[in-house]
Design goal:
Elements (H helix, E strand, L loop, with lengths): L11 H15 L4 E7 L5 H14 L3 E6 L10 H12 L35 H16 L4 E6 L6 H13 L5 E8 L4 H11 L4 E4 L5 H12 L8 H11 L3 H13 L3 E4 L2 E4 L9 H27 L3 E3 H8 L3 H13 L3 E3 L6 E4 L2 H9 L3 H18 L7 H11 L3 H17 L3 H14 L6 H17 L3 H6 L4 H4 L2 H18 L2 H15 L6 H16 L6 H17 L3 H15 L4 H17 L3 H19 L3 H13 L2 H17 L8 H11 L3 H16 L4 H15 L5 H10 L3 H8 L13 H8 L5 H9 L6 H17 L3 H14 L4 H18 L4 H14 L3 H13 L16 H5 L4 H10 L5 H8 L3 H15 L4 H11 L2
Parallel strand pairs: 1-4, 1-5, 2-3, 3-4
Antiparallel strand pairs: 6-7, 8-10, 9-10
Length: 952
Amino acid sequence: MLIRSPDLIGRDGELRELATAFDDALAGHGRAVVLVGESGIGKSRLAREVAARAAGRGARVLRGQGSSIGPLVPFRPLAEALLSLTRDTEPLDVAELGPYLPALGVLVPDWRTGPDDDPAPPLLVVAEAVLRLLAVVGRAGGCVLVLDDLHDTDAETLFVLEYLVNNLESARVLLIGTIRDHTSTARDIARSAARHGVCAVRTLHRLGRDDVHGVIAACLGTDRERVPGATAGHLWQLSTGIPFLVEELLHELIHDGLLLERADGWHLADKPAGTVPVALVTSIEARMTQLGSDGAELLAAAAVMGARFAAPVVQRAAGADDRTVAGFLDAVIDARLVEPDPAALGWYAFRHPLTVEAVLTRLGPTRRAELARLAADAAERLHPGLPGDWCARVAELRRLAGDRAVAGRLFADAGQRALAVGAAGAAVGLFGRADALLTDSPDLPLRGGVLESLAYVLGETGQVERAFELSGRLDEVGLFHRAAALHARLAWAACLAGRYDAGLAQVAAARACHGSAGPDRQGAAIDAVHALLLLDAPGGADPGEAGRLATAALAQAERHDDAVVACQALLALGVLAWERDPDAARDHLERARLLTDTHRLPLWRTHVLLRLGEHLAQADGDVGGLVLARDQADRGGAVAVSHAADARIVRYGQVLGGEYRPGEPARLAAAAERHHLDAVVRHARVTRAVCAAHQADRAGMTEALAGIRAADGDPGLGLAQAFCALLEEDRDRARRDLGLAGGAPLSGRHGLGPLLDVLAGDLGPAELAAAAATPAGRLRWNRQFTALAEAVLHGRHGDSARAEAAAKEARDAARPYRMAIHLGARLVAEAALADGWGDPVPWLRAAEEYFHDAAVPAVAGACRVLLRRAGEPVRQRRPGLHRLPRELLDAGVTVREYDVFRLLAHRLGNTEIARRLLISPKTVEKHVSSLMTKTKLPDRVTLFAYASDIGP
């Protein structure tokens, strides 16, 4: 029976990426990929699999490995890899290496040309020699160089490695390195190369449960259906998803008779040693015996603390002296049970969680609880106040000791501390553990507070369904004000998810629990979230009601010094003021940001940054604030804000910026749907429609709009439809579509609409000035159009100087918007030509080039018509011209000449080319002659070679 899986499982993505890297190498673009991961994760196995597949395609594979055994030998991995060339049955012509061949003598003795006492060549020369050798090796079918365990290699090898990674571009070579994920010079080199774009660093993660199930079935040589889920789950938990340990543990279970094959499949027998295979327990026991009784006691005290332990706490818990502890640590390190934790002085880590389980298996429940109590007492004495993660550690120790009430309070305290540093993901786990431990606690205020906090962090981390499930446990709280607080928290979770009806229902429930009490702190919390729900809900709300609620909430929050409610109220006021008074809106949001900094509210800070970032993106086209919000949300696990910021970055930065990535809206929607974030899903749908409209894809836009209407009602996307119409050269339809737009700042009514009205002669200077002076009209996206409208009006009145100044302002404003700047130029070029202002010819040439490349033929054609009308020569645009490589396009090669050129790569004669292209041989001869003239090549043979290099 196999004890190693014959198949590589769970690495499909990595295999595809490495296969692509090898394809790139075969195409003459060398690649370097470094695989990083812990011991046993499968780095070497993956590298071997890729090398084997490449060898099957005709590549030569060279392998070398670093080693920590014995003294470091210079160039060991490289020498091991290159020495295989001297054993290969296929001869290698190294004569062309010329003066570089002797430098390779330090790696391959067969190529040494001078006496042994010759000075060693410079490292740089050795590195260049290796690079040239690899180029020769890979010339025929490509080359794969695998260098394993680079964390254990010498400085000379690393010097050459760094040189290779930086200079592989033109070689048909794929370099694969493997490195463990601890600090090392090799890892630093790989990361630096990755930052410079010359190397890909891929971290291999542990296998999930499903992949472990596949590994087990492969090792057993059976179908997955014959391996029960309990077996797969058991091995997955024990191995923590490390492939090597999966296979080793499987072997242990079979060897010990704990995994047996029956008629209906493989089943686990009862395990007398608990969850750890007997063989492993026996092995650990043997090593513990060698530690002596004092050492075994210390090891047991350490194991109770978990996979990592602090030596001073273990010492105090066991009551040992310094000398005994020092001897113990030396012994367990020598026995490879424990290793020092390089990240923290005085801390140590078990080499694998199974070691902890094996040690704990020897202890009875009573002894284990006693050791946990002693360790908790020791930690509290050594670390008063339980700073850092000591609070959660001691909470777990108290749980092991059987003190559920104390453990629950400590986990709740640890959850609040996690919130204070913005670690929402960690807070979910901590509050969840506190909730589970306090189920039977008579302390109702504590239980209610834990439920409130849990609802809050579940909403922030995108686990809205779990948050809503808490509403069924309100009877546990027992206090009306606590129930009201929990409903308010659930209303906020609904607001984050964009489930506005559900949020308003929670607000109503909160008010019912709160009763008819006058203004107070609890009522302020309800008012604040109510205001935000009203403002964020699609379709608009009564701004007066939202403003009244937010203002009242802010007053009460300030009276009670409640920074969270004040922050929510200021967010609402900032949203409310944005359209009528952007400066006031920014003031509200800056006040909120100051509150989050002063009161250490990092998660609330992400919400403030999101609103500020969106305002900055609308006002100036700068998505830097949104990127900051997303990055901070990612660091804290605030999934809702992260996805919301990401959606806005795509819309304001990419789509409005003219960077259209077809898969982005779908990616946004899929990610948001996984977390049930309805608001982000709606945003992604709108982005999809806008993206299609800005590419003149009416069918795609219509489909997207139909999906939005079916799910959410009328989206009011008149601007997107107007853009699509303009890209079809249908201005009348565009103006009609703008009439369907809503009143949002970027709806088109404050920018594009006035420009189209001016061009049609329906808007005069006074009306335009009024539109441009509004807060929405001053936004950068709108200003690019209103300034163009001003230029058109000035030009009509013969004031070319003011027209040109307005046009310059418009183009400056349009700088972030790649498509819009060219569309605006096309719209006003006719007026500029007629009235003699601006630079309409260069504008039209740039616009024609852009829209031709973007496959928007209507606008590109209109630009060409206007250029001809101005008496300007127009570049021929034949179908298929976009297929030409840039160097041939720049040389003036035509589409038909390129058709001939592609067939020359196959070294065909004139007659055969003529037959394939349905033209005469004489015409082919004329095209070949023209190609030689344009490419400045002397003869047909050279042209053949050039055509082959570029590719057919």
